Amino acid sequence: MAFNHLPAGVHDALVPLSVTPVTDSVPMAKNLRSDRSPAGPGSRPEPGTILTRLAAGPNRAARITHTEHLPPRPGRHAVWPDRIRPEVVAAVQAAGIEHPWAHQATAAEHALDGDSVVVATGTASGKSLAYLVPVLSALLDGSEAPNGRGATALYLAPTKALAADQCRSVKELSQPLGTSVRAAVYDGDTPVEEREWIRQYGTYVLTNPDMLHRGILPSHPRWSSFLKSLKYVVIDECHTYRGVFGSHVAQVLRRLRRLCARYGASPVFLLASATAAEPAVAARRLTGLPVVEVADDASPRGELVFALWEPPLTDMEGEKGAPVRRTATAEAADLLTDLTVQGLRSITFVRSRRGAELISVIAQERLAEVDRSLSRRVAAYRGGYLPEERRALERALHSGELLGLAATNALELGLDISGLDAVVIAGYPGTRASLWQQAGRAGRSGQGALAVLVARDDPLDTFLVHHPEALFDQPVESTVLDPDNPYVLAPHLCAAAAELPLTEEDLPLFGPACEELLPQLEEARLLRRRTRAWHWTRRERAAELTDIRGEGGRPVQVVEAGTGRLLGTVDAGAAHTTVHEGAVHLHQGRTYLVRTLDLEDSVALVEQATPTYSTVARDTTAISVLETDTEVPWGAGRLCYGSVEVTNQVVSFLRRRLITGEVLGETKLDLPPRTLRTRAVWWTVTEDQLDAARINPEILGGALHAAEHASIGMLPLFATCDRWDIGGVSVPLHPDTLLPTVFVYDGHPGGAGFAERAFHTARDWLTATREAIASCECEAGCPSCIQSPKCGNGNDPLHKRGAVRLLTVLLRGAETTETTNAGP
């Protein structure tokens, strides 16, 4: 029997094989305040005082496992390059910024020199102003051109909300410049009647990679005037472009560069990133161009108090009698309630849409008990809301009407929210870079701030709150992306050929994998070669071959059956597990039951209900080895990396009582299987190693399964992934290896670079996994060590002590091999 651990988001990729989500935002408006004085003494409580108040409740102080104090830092000023137009400098000064920080001036100088540059500094450090000043100066120069349009600039943001917020800020800043800067948002929410005006007259167009891929590039003749004048391309929050999404965006940018070259333009790329390891390397991989790095942060910083918070154990028992901690959701809802009662502005970041809804509902109910008017000052914000719902929440947050918000990273990547007093992070967000960006959303007017990381009942979260050095003494991660992934590259070659016939001179732009892929695309009759160029052969739009966010097709519309009202959408890849027939679905605090899921029409019909249970999908997974790229001996065992095929099917769902998690029943489902070809790391052990670890056949499956769960939970500490981006399978006797084997694989077609990173850091990764299991205080395994929230086998079987012994023997073999290879 194989024990599987399927990544959320893998469902988007599990489709018949054919050519087919962090992270955080620091929008522009905050930079207009980056040089202003912080709030005066006494106007806000100190962050330490806020934490003391939060810890004052019954048994709360013991939940704080560590407190980190980051002292304030003074800023270093410079002067703008003398090539910046004086009108632009005057507009910036009118916005309250007398002098730039040193890194802003340095980045602007590179931009003026025609060097592509990445600014990788901390939250609220003024990155947006660093690129906006040279852009506005160029647009002002262009307004004096004979044709009246002159230079243009394109801004790319990972979310619609961020682009909309940036547009508001740009208009405010450029108001003294008159009509020379015509900024406009061009995305899926832009009314049709505005789009033609933007194409003809816009000089600063703000959009997202999705719209560039599906709308602008395929219609490039209508954008010819804009593209031939393109001076700058701004890529905001470029650290979010990682994994498969980042690989797709890299190819979209290469298509943009190719079309610009055909129109005679060679734009300079200006990138803004969170603090990251080797930002210039990641930016070069993303754009395909040499990029200069500016990473010396010269901006001031207020004091930050960062607390690690572990919810207490409860009297309840979970699966297999495991001890259960109070959920991070309930704990974060309490903290959000307390902060709101104190009149403090805060955001609670939550990992899931459902979690955001639950936290807001719980906080509203508790606030109503204190003061009914307070309950209206807390809300949820997540992806899947309709545009008008999002905009209303954004306005309320900007105006201060809302004090508290429970948000997914749809907001983390969205808006300027200056002056927050506290950030609560319900569960480790997956990377240290994302953690620091979320924490940085508070204190952005210069005042001190509080950040609280509330640990989930999860191996990685538990490890981190008891090993603070892994958070505070380690550098942030490198960004992982692979533009040469054939599953990514192939549809973009088709899209490029549809935009303009693809010539041999174009191929170096798209990378070395082109030569192998083009014959396959010809054989599939997607491309046809005529003389020296490849042409798109189909009637349908080539851009529709792939969803660049890896979501595997049209989102499923969630529709209220009685009224026909559209409630929102669910990613196609998540539909089998979240809106299957009988699933409980939450939307803006209301509970619905899914009556039918129509996969052909991508519609889930729901009815409002008040069930006393939640639902969890169960699935089965099989995996086969297609090709082993590399392997190393670990004693008698082997560590391998290569290509695999994963077949998954959702087969049933469990109904669990809301309060206790007790299983009330299981219902079978009839959903089609889906297949994924991807990359994986796997390790094997021999009978001699099992004997050394005292692993008998009765506990072998549980030991392997437990090691698989824990290793998946710990991988985000070593690769820029989320545990929901990866999956796993453990097999007591795998038909391809003929040995007990544990697989960990990327949940995206062709891989995302996570398994490869796991292979190269395997010894450190599995050592941390073993330590996380061994140090957990539970007796036989719990969600803090070996139980998984998304196990397709209901966390059965699992054997905690067997997993520790197994990993000990495996790692001893790795040490022996390394010692032998090192020689005398």
Automatic annotation (TrEMBL):
A GO term for molecular function: helicase activity
* Domain Helicase C-terminal intervals: 331-487
Keywords, comma-separated and alphabetical = ATP-binding, Helicase, Hydrolase, Nucleotide-binding
Q: What Gene3D superfamilies does the record tag this protein with? A: P-loop containing nucleotide triphosphate hydrolases (3.40.50.300)
Region (Disordered) spans which residues? 29-49
InterPro entries on file: DEAD/DEAH_box_helicase_dom, Helicase_ATP-bd, Helicase_C-like, Helicase_put_actinobac, HRQ1_WHD, MZB, P-loop_NTPase
Q: Could you tell me which residue ranges the Helicase ATP-binding domain spans?
A: 108-294
Q: Return the PANTHER family for the record.
A: ATP-DEPENDENT HELICASE HRQ1
Q: What name does UniProt use for this protein?
A: DEAD/DEAH box helicase
Q: Which organism is it from?
A: Streptomyces ambofaciens
